[in-house]
Specification:
By secondary structure, this protein is an alpha/beta fold. The chain folds into two domains: 11-41 and 83-113 and 270-341, FAD/NAD(P)-binding domain (3-Layer(bba) Sandwich); 121-268 and 356-442, FAD/NAD(P)-binding domain, CATH 3.50.50.100. The chain is 32% helix and 22% strand. The protein has twelve helices and 25 strands. It has helices at 20-28, 51-55, 68-71, 121-126, 133-152, 156-163, 172-192, 218-230, 323-341, 377-390, 394-410, 434-439, and strands at 11-16, 34-40, 44-46, 65-67, 78-82, 85-89, 94-97, 100-103, 106-109, 114-115, 128-129, 164-168, 202-206, 233-236, 241-245, 248-251, 256-258, 261-264, 268-269, 287-288, 301-303, 308-309, 356-359, 365-369, 372-375. The chain has a five-stranded parallel sheet, covered by helices on one side. It has a five-stranded parallel sheet with strand order 11-18-12-13-14. Strand 7 and strand 8 (100-103) form a beta hairpin. The chain starts with 10 loop residues before the first strand and ends in a 7-residue tail after the last helix. The model is unreliable at 429-446 (pLDDT under 50). Bound molecules: flavin-adenine dinucleotide.
Length: 446
């Protein structure tokens, strides 16, 4: 198989990964100077900050997914190919993919990160990660399926594991997810399941450190914890999950919680790409780069976004793995690649801090920017405006806005549909088929 890329007399830049960093590169690299080949294992870009809203039925999956072919419809110098990159041959300047190999002049690795289960096989097999659209839909399916099973259950003991939702990881994703789940429990479920005691549903947030939102100010952490407590979420700090077996979430001290709904948002790692010198791989699998985002030891290979790690005195653990950072690194690399192609000098990347935002249900959010901190309705408005602004496509922005307005006014979320495709089923116990789902509930899972 070949990738069928037309020959060119321009320099060819192969970009691996069409996340925030990858599409910023492909959209901005000069048409005159470069042929750009974008390779991604999916045929769409996704807006990960709103995945939790798909998982909780607030918005439609299509609202935060954008087909690459549509994004690059008018950019004739960009060629998209759906394939998985499996390795690099730096000497041959070739990238290897599941659809064949391709020569490059410059290679940019923008492969992002994947969920880190820290080697816990039971957790990896049974927990739901929340890293992409498929994961978000799987969480939505699981929670709705658990409620359907609970409505068939004969008693409290059978219902308990179905009613316990355990989210691990008190960072942005975990906090936002449990906030949305708490609102779903309060406003939606009593209407949908009038014959179920949904007030007995337990939403728990487990965090290994001593506070939520560790990247934000401790004041915000404390306020978020109080707020979630008022919303009925049980926050469990200083607690580590060590295993997930037989429907039990098992903690380091041996205690456990029976739950069929374990969501894992704690930690990420970068998947290795064969051919990149192992000595260039840092903690969490991140690829070590210099201040030009060049992979150490290679003159034509770059890495940006979550996959990259530039260590500086101010940031010995690398820059934060967030969307805005990925975009800014990519923008800077565009300027450098173009300057280099024109024979001009290139400049080192300078880190800038950007606002951090966390929304916890309707009207409530926290915003932090350097010493400035804000919470409440105005912060929620700022959060909403910024998120809509960063979503691609007018149609998607409009659809999200209308969805939010509808939810806001009616306290309803219209996307509570269990959609299961053959392809989305994975051999893991909690992603069982509907038939299994409706029969295995009688077996004790705790
Ligand atoms: C649930 C969640 C919530 C988040 N919330 C926020 C937030 O509120 N604010 C914020 O700033 N950040 C947030 N982030 C982090 C942010 O999404 C990431 O920092 C950002 O997506 C990194 O961009 P990237 O381009 O480096 O990688 P990604 O956006 O992850 O893109 C990587 C791309 O590479 C592709 N890919 C990977 N490997 C291969 C391969 N071998 N071959 C082909 N294609 C490949 C993937 O399919 C993907 O499209 C959140 C992340 C998650 C998961």
């Amino acid at each position: 198989m070949a990738l069928n890329i037309p020959p060119t007399d321009r320099k060819r830049i192969v970009v691996v990964g069409g996340g925030f960093a990858g599409i910023t590169l492909a959209r901005n690299l000069s048409r005159r100077l470069f042929q750009v080949v974008l390779i991604d294992r999916n045929n769409y870009h996704q807006f990960q900050p709103l995945l939790y809203q798909v998982a909780t039925s607030s918005i439609k999956p299509g609202d935060i997914a954008f087909p690459f072919r549509k994004i690059f419809r008018h950019r004739r110098n960009v060629h998209f190919r759906m394939a998985e990159v499996t390795g690099v041959l730096p000497r041959e300047r070739t990238v290897e993919t599941t659809a064949g190999s391709l020569a490059y002049d410059y290679l940019v690795l923008a492969t992002g990160s994947v969920t880190n289960f820290y080697g816990m096989e039971g957790v990896e097999a049974g927990a739901f990660p929340m890293k992409d659209l498929t994961d978000a839909l799987a969480i939505r399916n699981q929670i709705l399926l658990s409620l359907e099973k609970a409505s068939l259950a004969l008693g409290e003991a059978e219902r308990r594991p179905l009613f316990n939702v355990v989210v691990v990881g008190g960072g942005l994703s975990g906090v936002e997810l449990v906030g949305a789940l708490a609102e779903m429990k309060r406003y939606i479920l009593p209407k949908d399941y009038p014959d179920l005691p949904v007030d007995q549903m337990n939403i728990m947030l487990v965090e290994g450190s001593d506070r939520l939102l560790p990247t934000m100010h401790p004041d915000i952490s404390a306020r978020a914890e109080r707020l979630l407590g008022r919303m009925g979420v049980r926050v469990i700090l200083n607690t580590q999950v060590t295993d997930y077996r037989a429907g039990r979430v098992i903690f380091k001290d041996g205690s456990f919680i029976p739950s069929r709904n374990l969501v894992w948002t704690s930690g990420v790692r970068v998947e290795p790409i064969e051919g990149i010198d192992e000595r260039r791989i840092g903690p969490g699998g991140r690829i070590q780069v210099d201040r030009f985002n060049r992979v150490a030891g290679y003159s034509r290979i770059f890495a940006v976004g979550d996959a990259a790690m530039a260590r500086t005195d101010d940031h010995p653990k690398g820059y934060p793995q967030v969307a805005r950072e990925a975009i800014e690194e990519a923008r800077h690399l565009v300027r450098n690649l173009e300057a280099h192609a024109r024979g001009e000098g290139i400049t080192g990347y300078t880190y800038h801090e950007y606002p951090t935002m966390a929304a916890i249900g309707r009207n409530k959010a926290f915003v932090q920017f350097k010493r400035f901190r804000m919470g409440g309705f105005m912060a929620w408005l700022a959060w909403a405006v910024v998120h809509i602004a960063f979503v691609l496509g007018v149609q998607n922005k409009l659809s999200i806005f209308i969805g939010w307005a509808w939810n806001y006014l009616t306290y309803d979320q219209p996307n509570r549909i269990i959609v299961r495709t053959q392809a989305s089923r994975r051999p893991r116990p909690s992603r069982d088929t509907l038939r299994e789902a409706l029969t295995d509930w009688k077996q004790p899972s705790a």
